[in-house]
Write a structure and sequence with these properties.
By secondary structure, the protein is α/β, with parallel strands linked by helices. It has nine helices and ten strands. It has an eight-stranded mixed β-sheet, sandwiched between helices. A two-stranded parallel ribbon has the order 1-5.
Length: about 270
């Protein structure tokens, strides 16, 4: 009976692992297909790009060029939507005096492929190769939002920027789902980790972490954990009243003052 029970338990675990591995991408990624809205709808010109990954995918990217930028930004968006959904944010960043390179991960927008954690890291590798191959003007900022904070932190381990801006982020996937017993249980069998905090522990660059105190998706405590993992110069800014999916900051003066001051400080250090 004991042997039969052990075999049955093992079989159940194997089935659970297979089911979770089959479905984990559906829990992690919420891509929207196509490209409907561009920065031009918001009065900002852009250049569409196609970036090849080393495993054969083609990624859609947008380059929003400012004639005299405060900094060059490589922007990594969250796990939902596509570039068209994020176009209002990208346009505001550009209008605020920054040049921006933003990409749709595989399976998002008109990018080919299907998203996975490993696949997104390959996408980041391809974007960095494209970006640094053009010899960008300094300073260079990697800017990530939500899931994009993990991509930005990973990017910093591949090619060091002058600074990191991490908005509405989290320390790792398991920590994020710990408040939900079901998701925490499923996470035990998932291959996805998204270890943003671990990536940060391996880079020594100035970091600005911003988080809304009304974030209903990723609690501000997760942003604090991410901040605590940074080993270099760092700053944490609380956006009062800010929720996770705000397309515009609830307190724009505090928001942009923090970003512009951070970029100015980094620019002085890198010059």
């Amino acid at each position: 009976m004991t042997v039969k029970f052990a075999v049955a338990l093992f079989a159940i675990l194997v089935v659970l692992i297979l089911i979770v591995r089959l479905l984990e991408s559906r829990f992690a990624f919420f891509p929207a297909l196509g490209e409907t809205v561009t920065p031009r709808e918001f009065g900002v010109d852009y250049t569409p790009l196609s970036i090849a990954t080393r495993d054969g995918e083609r990624l859609r990217a947008w380059a929003l060029i400012h004639p005299a930028p405060r900094a060059q930004v490589v922007y990594f968006h969250g796990n939902g939507g596509n570039l068209s959904v994020w176009a209002p944010i990208l346009a505001v960043i550009a209008r605020h005096g920054y040049s921006v390179l933003a990409v749709d991960y595989r399976g998002y927008g008109v990018s080919t492929g299907r998203p996975s954690e490993r696949g997104l890291y390959r996408d980041v590798d391809a974007v960095l190769e494209q970006f640094w191959g053009a010899t960008p003007r300094r300073p260079v900022m990697y800017w990530g939002r939500s899931l994009g904070t993990v991509m930005a932190a990973y990017a910093a381990t591949v090619r060091t920027p002058d600074g990191l801006i991490l908005e509405s982020g989290f320390s790792d996937a398991r920590s994020l789902v710990r408040t939900s017993p079901l998701l925490a249980f499923l996470a035990v069998f998932s291959s996805y980790r998204f270890p943003g905090a671990e990536f940060l522990r391996h880079v020594d660059v100035p970091v600005l972490v911003m988080h809304g105190d009304h974030d209903q998706v990723i609690p501000i405590a997760e942003g604090r954990k991410l901040f605590d993992s940074a080993v270099g110069q760092k700053q944490f800014v609380t956006i009062r009243g800010g929720d996770h999916n705000d397309l515009t900051p609830s307190d724009p003066d505090v928001y942009w003052h923090a970003i512009d001051r951070f970029v100015a400080d980094v620019s002085r250090r890198s010059s």
